[in-house]
């Protein structure tokens, strides 16, 4: 890696840190702007509505302090990588998020790879069979999945594959109480993974398929493809060596966008399928007005977006020699 | 001698809805070993069709209707695809017009050339590398070792075309098809590429089918010439015969439309105050640059000064990147210059804000290069022409009346008023562009490559129109042009630009006959077919010159 590339990445990381700080401040106010009081929620759950108890709770979490002071405490802790303690579980926010991270990454990562693989493949096939029935089929299917709301699809999939066919489990990440180990546990998790990952990935599969198809058809009309044919190449070779690589450039951009949502983008799916990940954690934190936890999840999600933007740009520069990392 | 390739009664059908039924009809010609056959025609003449049919590059919707293309005992029209692939790139190869897009942007030069060996030979990786390297040397690329691992975007247009040629000649094919290979290149680069093709052709005794629209190029390299018009082959003969004694009326028309390279004697203009004065104009472009890096700076105009008088055509000539278009755009304030003075008459306009500039805009108007992109497709011709005067406060009825008069002036029918741009040809659209510029009764007309997108016969008509209008309306014309033949014919004075600087300026005849600067000399020497129609030829060409003048 050249010194310029490292300088560029360094520069981007500094810019990213500044962006994150601004986001953190913004998030702080956004959450405070929403109605609700964490102390009341907690007191309500404890069955106590006594004003003194509420006051105590507020003092305990620093909620009685003026807003600017709370912000100051939050930000100064954050820059020391301390995200605070959750109100409810009384655990460090960071630990709790890290605890849930593997489940989410497994789900979103599987959905990501699956959609990329199937989407690009379907796009290539559609482009090659341009204006034939396979193309029409893929295009229409992609349009349907693109337009269907995710949560509805999730519920229908659960209904059909779990309730009706009884092939796949409809919730959770592992069979409760089975205490499986080793390979059996892996298989168990995988069968639990299929439905949520497929549901989550379907939208992006459709997007990738449509984009790859359009991009392939456009690239096929380019002059260098003519050059390749004039060399005496077989059509398959022209497609894979010359068309596909060029056609995938816009797909990389999109994949970068999806990768940015690896942490924060699975709230709906995790909720429907009771997947014990960060999305569900966030969903619960929202109802409990657990400010620290919410802010923590927001922050980690934003950091992922910033990070994956950078990674996308670096990948782009690797796959497209025309782009230099120097701006 | 037996012909290498024989095209017999070839007809190619166009899809329904095209402007004619057949792309080409009953084309017959032969390609002899070791000769350069030029296929000439204007756009839409079907001159590339046969070549594409030979290479199997016809779009799916376009089919060979009848006829045969015989090569080495095979009929390329009916040959099975897997056999045709063995010929393509191996025994017949092709280079294309646009070097900027003809190479895969994501693959290294060596890999793209090496692919030819990979497909057609059993050479090892090392052998492929060696052969590729020697090819790069053969086509005269600088630093071939380094060139091997370069990507296309790191090369200039000329260098890319050399890579294409290396690729095409990799397996020493018996036929090289060159489809307008120098059209997108600057004149000095074009001269180098033509020389290279000729040298390699002689060295390997390759037969070349060279497709072009430029009779200068024909005069430079052809042995024999085929002339195509609207899908018909109208003339076939030896170069000297076709160029100097054309038989068919279309060939005669085409050749007479090529401006001779002799600047005619022009009457000296009476001394007058300049209508446009440019003093020490500077414009730099910077690209890139950010937190950690310095921007790349290009000086597009560097200390440019000139004057323009009424009734005068001043040519701004130079190759791409010389800054000639930048200067013209700064002058009409489409671009902001960095420093320097622009005076319309006595009024400095370079620093005026949009509101203060508005009344001056009327006095200097522009005609653009691309007649297809420069007219709003959703407006009628009448609206396009009348828009400017209406914006300047003219009542709508009066502006439309004026648009009708202007259409008559540029020799378009009055019925054009309510029609849309797509209904017109390139030449007609350029007439609309001129009418739009004249709608303001300007003193100065800036024509930025206003004819370079047009076919040669249409070019001549538009040039003629501009000349007439200039005289009738006593205009001053700033003519940005890369074609020196055109500059020689239409300009009173020329300014030669290189890399943003003026290297030479003077009366056209003087600059062409006694160029002082080395760059001007090399430009003039690079014009293809410079000897043809330069006054050195005799007979028919001479009378044609008279006809053109």
UniProtKB/TrEMBL annotation, chain A:
The residues that cross the membrane are 12-31, 103-125, 137-165, 189-209, 247-273, 293-319
Mind listing the UniProt keywords for this protein, alphabetically?
Answer: Cell membrane, Membrane, Transmembrane, Transmembrane helix, Transport
Compartments annotated for it: namely: Cell membrane
One GO BP annotation is: transmembrane transport
Main location per UniProt? membrane
Asked if Methyltransferase is a keyword of the record, the answer is no
InterPro entries membership = BPD_transp_1_N, MetI-like, MetI-like_sf
Q: Which Pfam families match?
A: BPD_transp_1 (PF00528), BPD_transp_1_N (PF19300)
| Highest taxon listed in the record's lineage | Bacteria
GO terms for cellular component = plasma membrane
Bilayer topology term: Multi-pass membrane protein
Q: Which residues form the ABC transmembrane type-1 domain?
A: 101-316
* Record-stated family: Belongs to the binding-protein-dependent transport system permease family.
Q: What is this protein called?
A: Peptide/nickel transport system permease protein
Question: Which organism's genome codes for this protein?
Answer: Marinomonas communis
Its lineage reads: Bacteria, Pseudomonadati, Pseudomonadota, Gammaproteobacteria, Oceanospirillales
From TrEMBL, chain B:
| Enzyme Commission numbers on file | 7.4.2.9
InterPro entries found in the cross-reference section: AAA+_ATPase (IPR003593), ABC_Ni/Peptide_Import (IPR050388), ABC_transporter-like_ATP-bd (IPR003439), ABC_transporter-like_CS (IPR017871), Oligopep_ABC_C (IPR013563), P-loop_NTPase (IPR027417)
Subcellular locations according to the entry: Cell inner membrane
UniProtKB keywords: ATP-binding, Cell membrane, Membrane, Nucleotide-binding, Transport
Q: What's the protein's topology in the membrane?
A: Peripheral membrane protein
Q: Which residues form a coiled coil?
A: none
Supply one GO CC term from the record.
Answer: plasma membrane
Q: Which reactions is this enzyme annotated as catalysing?
A: a dipeptide(out) + ATP + H2O = a dipeptide(in) + ADP + phosphate + H(+)
Keyword set includes Membrane: yes
Q: Which GO terms describe its biological process?
A: peptide transport; transmembrane transport
* Gene3D superfamilies with a match to the protein in the record: P-loop containing nucleotide triphosphate hydrolases (3.40.50.300)
Q: Which SMART domains match?
A: AAA
List, alphabetically, the CDD domains matched.
ABC_NikE_OppD_transporters
> Hey, what's the signal peptide range on this chain?
none
Q: Which residues form the ABC transporter domain?
A: 5-255, 276-524
Could you confirm whether the keyword Transport appears in this record? yes
- Give this protein's Gene Ontology molecular function annotations: ATP binding; ATP hydrolysis activity
Q: What's the family?
A: Belongs to the ABC transporter superfamily.
Record protein name field = ABC-type dipeptide transporter
């Amino acid at each position: 890696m050249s010194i310029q590339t490292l300088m560029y990445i360094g520069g981007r990381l500094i810019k990213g840190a500044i962006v994150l700080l601004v986001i953190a401040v913004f998030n702080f106010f956004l959450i405070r702007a929403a109605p609700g009081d964490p102390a009341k929620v907690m007191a309500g759950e404890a069955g106590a509505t006594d004003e003194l108890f509420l006051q105590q709770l507020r003092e305990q979490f620093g909620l009685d302090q003026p807003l600017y002071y709370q912000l100051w405490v939050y930000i100064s802790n954050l820059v020391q990588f301390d995200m605070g303690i959750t109100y409810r579980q009384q655990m460090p926010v960071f630990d709790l998020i890290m605890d849930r991270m593997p489940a989410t990454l497994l789900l979103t990562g599987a959905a990501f790879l699956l959609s990329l693989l199937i989407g690009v493949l379907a796009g290539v096939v559609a482009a090659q069979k341009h204006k034939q029935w396979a193309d029409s089929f893929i295009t229409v299917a992609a349009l349907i999945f693109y337009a269907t709301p995710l949560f509805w699809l999730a519920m229908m999939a659960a209904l059909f594959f779990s309730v009706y066919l009884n092939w796949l489990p409809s919730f959770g990440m592992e069979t409760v109480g089975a205490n499986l180990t080793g390979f059996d546990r892996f298989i168990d998790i995988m069968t639990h993974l299929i439905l949520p990952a497929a549901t989550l990935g379907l939208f992006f599969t459709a997007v990738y398929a449509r984009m790859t198809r359009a991009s392939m058809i456009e690239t096929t009309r380019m002059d260098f493809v003519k050059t390749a044919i004039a060399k005496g190449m077989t059509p398959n070779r022209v497609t894979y060596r010359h068309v596909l690589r060029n056609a995938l450039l816009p797909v990389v951009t999109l994949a970068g966008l999806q990768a940015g949502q690896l942490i924060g983008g699975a709230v709906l799916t995790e909720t429907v399928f009771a997947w014990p990940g960060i999305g569900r954690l966030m969903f619960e934190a929202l109802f409990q007005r657990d400010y620290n936890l919410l802010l923590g999840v927001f922050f980690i999600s934003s950091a992922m977006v910033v990070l994956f933007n950078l990674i996308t740009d670096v990948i782009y520069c690797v796959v497209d020699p025309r782009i230099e990392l120097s701006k | 001698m037996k012909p290498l390739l024989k095209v017999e009664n070839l007809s190619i059908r166009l899809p329904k809805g095209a402007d004619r039924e057949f792309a080409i009809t009953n084309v017959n010609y032969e390609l002899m070993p070791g000769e350069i056959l030029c296929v000439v025609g204007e756009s839409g003449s079907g001159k590339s069709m046969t070549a594409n049919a030979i290479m199997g590059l016809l779009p799916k919707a376009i089919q060979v209707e009848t006829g045969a293309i015989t090569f080495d005992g095979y009929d390329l029209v009916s040959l099975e695809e897997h056999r045709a692939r063995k010929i393509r790139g191996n025994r017949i190869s092709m280079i294309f017009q646009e070097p900027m897009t003809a190479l895969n942007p994501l693959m290294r030069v060596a890999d793209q050339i090496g692919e030819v060996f990979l497909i057609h030979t059993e050479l090892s990786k090392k052998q492929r590398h060696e052969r590729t390297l020697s090819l790069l040397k053969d086509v005269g690329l600088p630093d071939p070792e380094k060139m091997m691992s370069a990507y296309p975007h790191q090369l200039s247009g000329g260098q890319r075309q050399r890579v294409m040629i290396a690729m095409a000649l990799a397996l020493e094919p018996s036929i090289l098809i060159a489809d307008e290979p120098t059209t997108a290149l600057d004149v000095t680069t074009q001269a180098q590429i033509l020389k290279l093709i000729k040298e390699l052709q002689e060295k390997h005794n390759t037969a070349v089918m060279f497709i072009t629209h430029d009779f200068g190029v024909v005069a430079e390299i052809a042995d024999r010439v085929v002339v195509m018009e609207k899908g018909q082959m109208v003339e076939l003969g030896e170069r000297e015969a076709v160029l100097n004694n054309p038989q068919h009326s279309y060939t005669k028309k085409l050749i007479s439309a090529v401006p001779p390279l002799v600047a005619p004697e022009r009457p000296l203009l009476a001394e007058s105050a300049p209508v446009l004065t440019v003093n020490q104009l500077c414009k730099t472009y910077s690209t890139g640059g950010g937190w950690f890096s310095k921007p790349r700076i290009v000086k597009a105009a560097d200390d440019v000064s000139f004057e323009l008088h009424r009734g005068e055509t001043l040519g701004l000539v130079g190759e791409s990147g010389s800054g000639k278009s930048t200067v013209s755009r700064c002058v009409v304030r489409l671009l902001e210059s960095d420093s320097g003075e622009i005076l319309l008459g006595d009024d400095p306009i370079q620093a005026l804000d949009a509101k203060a500039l508005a009344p001056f805009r009327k006095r200097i108007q522009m005609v653009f290069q691309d007649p297809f992109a420069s007219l709003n497709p959703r407006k009628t011709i009448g609206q396009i022409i009348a828009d400017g005067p209406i914006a300047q406060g003219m009542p709508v009825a009066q502006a439309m009346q004026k648009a009708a008069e202007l259409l008559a002036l540029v020799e378009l029918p009055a019925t054009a008023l309510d029609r849309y741009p797509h209904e017109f040809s390139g030449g007609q659209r350029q007439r609309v562009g001129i009418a739009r510029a004249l709608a303001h009764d300007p003193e100065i007309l800036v024509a930025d490559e206003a004819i370079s997108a047009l076919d040669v016969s249409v070019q001549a008509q538009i040039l003629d129109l501009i000349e007439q209008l200039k005289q009738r309306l006593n205009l001053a014309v700033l003519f940005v042009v890369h074609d020196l033949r055109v500059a020689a014919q239409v300009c009173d004075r020329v300014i030669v630009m290189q890399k943003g600087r003026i290297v030479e300026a003077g009366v056209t005849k003087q600059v062409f006959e006694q160029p002082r600067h080395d760059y001007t000399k090399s430009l003039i020497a690079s014009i293809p077919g410079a000897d043809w129609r330069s006054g050195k030829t005799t007979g028919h060409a001479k009378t044609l010159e008279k006809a053109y003048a």
